């Protein structure tokens, strides 16, 4: 997430609130994009809006290092593209913290990326975790804890 929020973020949130008044007292959630490259951010936001990607994973060590709150059921997030433009609002439906080597084929399919197999998930996420963790001196392992978040799209412009 950048320091400056794109104008589409509050616009999307207030449009969502106007249509879902039961959340009128809910503060605007954090906005963010997937991945650490423009290609990943664009691809993942497209998969989320299309309803193909309904899960995401982050190494637990990253939450600790960046002092980020771990997602919780019923949390909202505004998903953006690389440039910070709002693409949709998601609501967390499940969170599980498990070892990397215990992620299941079913969960890998919910991630919605590539061929949606566990083999693909493990390779892509190992590469991602390696880059992310190395930035603060950590090394991935098969036993490292992974925060596995499932979500649903509750609002999009599409």
* Side-by-side strand order of the widest sheet: 1-3-4-5-2
Please state the average pLDDT score.
Answer: 95
Quaternary organization? single chain
In terms of DSSP E residues, the strand content is: 15-25%
The CATH homology group name:
Sulfate adenylyltransferase
- Per the CATH scheme, the topology name is Sulfate adenylyltransferase
Number of helices: 5
Low-confidence stretches: none
Sum up the overall morphology in one term. Answer: globular
Taking the sheet with the most strands, its summary is: 5 strands, mixed
Number of domains: 1
Straight-line distance between termini = 22 Å
Q: What's the CATH architecture name?
A: Roll
Question: Which value, in Å, is the CA radius of gyration?
Answer: 15 Å
Q: Which class best fits the helix and strand makeup? A: alpha+beta
CATH class membership:
Alpha Beta
Strand segment count: 5
The ordered string of helix (H) and strand (E) elements is HEHEHEEHHE
Explain what this protein looks like in three dimensions.
With 158 residues, the protein is an alpha+beta fold. The chain has a single domain, classed as Sulfate adenylyltransferase (Roll), CATH 3.10.400.10. The chain contains five helices and five strands; from the N terminus they run H-E-H-E-H-E-E-H-H-E. It has a five-stranded mixed beta sheet with strand order 1-3-4-5-2. Helix 4 crosses helix 5. It is globular.
